[in-house]
Amino acid sequence: MNKVTLACAVCSSRNYSTNKNVSTNSTRLEVRKYCKTCGKHTLHRETK
């Protein structure tokens, strides 16, 4: 399990962190979550 950070695709603010199992999922994580900066649900992508 690796700790990854999720950043908003619209405003690029890093709002969330989560764990990801790299051995079963090697692609970048993309989740729709609420962004406090934008004030709405947006796509959040895994950052380095």
UniProtKB/TrEMBL annotation:
<dbReference type="InterPro" id="IPR038584">
    <property type="entry name" value="Ribosomal_bL33_sf"/>
</dbReference>
<protein>
    <recommendedName>
        <fullName>Large ribosomal subunit protein bL33</fullName>
    </recommendedName>
</protein>
<dbReference type="InterPro" id="IPR001705">
    <property type="entry name" value="Ribosomal_bL33"/>
</dbReference>
<dbReference type="InterPro" id="IPR011332">
    <property type="entry name" value="Ribosomal_zn-bd"/>
</dbReference>
<dbReference type="InterPro" id="IPR018264">
    <property type="entry name" value="Ribosomal_bL33_CS"/>
</dbReference>
<dbReference type="GO" id="GO:1990904">
    <property type="term" value="C:ribonucleoprotein complex"/>
</dbReference>
<keyword id="KW-0689">Ribosomal protein</keyword>
<dbReference type="Pfam" id="PF00471">
    <property type="entry name" value="Ribosomal_L33"/>
</dbReference>
<dbReference type="GO" id="GO:0003735">
    <property type="term" value="F:structural constituent of ribosome"/>
</dbReference>
<dbReference type="GO" id="GO:0005840">
    <property type="term" value="C:ribosome"/>
</dbReference>
<dbReference type="GO" id="GO:0006412">
    <property type="term" value="P:translation"/>
</dbReference>
<keyword id="KW-0687">Ribonucleoprotein</keyword>
<comment type="similarity">
    <text>Belongs to the bacterial ribosomal protein bL33 family.</text>
</comment>
<dbReference type="GO" id="GO:0005737">
    <property type="term" value="C:cytoplasm"/>
</dbReference>
